[in-house]
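[#protein-structures] MJ: dropping GT2 family glycosyltransferase here for a structure pass
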Amino acid sequence: MAVNQPFPGRAGACADVAIVVLNWNGADFLRQFLPGVVAHADGARVVVADNASTDDSVALLARDFPAVELLLLERNFGFCEGYNQALAQVESPYFVLLNSDVAVTPGWLRPLRALLESRPRAAAVQPKILAHADPTRFEYAGAGGGYLDRLAYPFCRGRLFDTTEVDAGQYDDPRPVAWASGACCLVRASAWRALGGLEPAFFAHMEEIDFCWRLQNAGHEVWYHGGSAVHHVGGGTLAKTDPRKTYLNFRNGLALLYKNAAPGELAGPLAQRIVLDWVAGLRFLLGGQAAEARAVARAHWHFFQKRAYWRQQRRAARPHLRTAERPGNLAISIVWAYFGRGKRKFSELSGK
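AK: finished. structure tokens for GT2 family glycosyltransferase:
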């Protein structure tokens, strides 16, 4: 249901782009960051899809942001299905998935759109993502472009586990990557629709990695463009140490690998992931984080309970490209590199 109407007569460099912010009880973030999104939209439509908020988000948007289109979703669908529901109602050649806690910068959108325009096979591209609290450093969720190791553990240029690098221009080069961050990502609408959007069973977390992996399996490219930058708060919905977040990350991590890995690259890595997950659960338990340990156990239980569904989704994701056929994949163990060998920078992993 659309409440506010598009601002009439808009034109600009990005008039064929719809910037879509999914909101749930984020009125404070909207007050802080939406004015900048509107000011630097560069001709793009700005849409807020509200996931049945119970705060004053809707009243705020209707009162203070008349140029913003508002879509009211009937209930809280979560991040994945919330975007699926919202984008099904938005007609535009390009979508930006933008978190409500992201501060955009002047001119941020043009380089992203230009990259997709110049590369017909490219279907998704993210900007450089810096920390809002300290814009000299990369931010956890996306940083300088997303990578995967041989067990499908995600990491980024500029961020390995909890270690983030200072941005000194070392990752300004545009390049194909394994995944683009859902915090800020420009997507080709035709590819989005062809793949059915985000995996709704994920609810939230790792959904963009799954989507980008499916894009690559379908023959598309995923890119990072360091000529564009945004600043991300991060952790706006679930705190980093929230057991719910732990549960989603561990469950979705197994599902991500199971759905998308090539046949010869599934059984061994999946078994190793399960072992490493239980090692992590034991570390939580010994560290006095019993709720986190239970979250890991529950994640595994629910993954195996739902294995018939994941098998169905795996069949739908064919063909499955091998690791060497997909950019942004390194044939290493990021866990061993970081915890065993003390590697703290992306350049120490790849020499790039």
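MJ: nice. Residues 267-286 form the longest helix (20 residues).
AK: one more thing. Confidence is low (pLDDT under 50) at residues 1-11.
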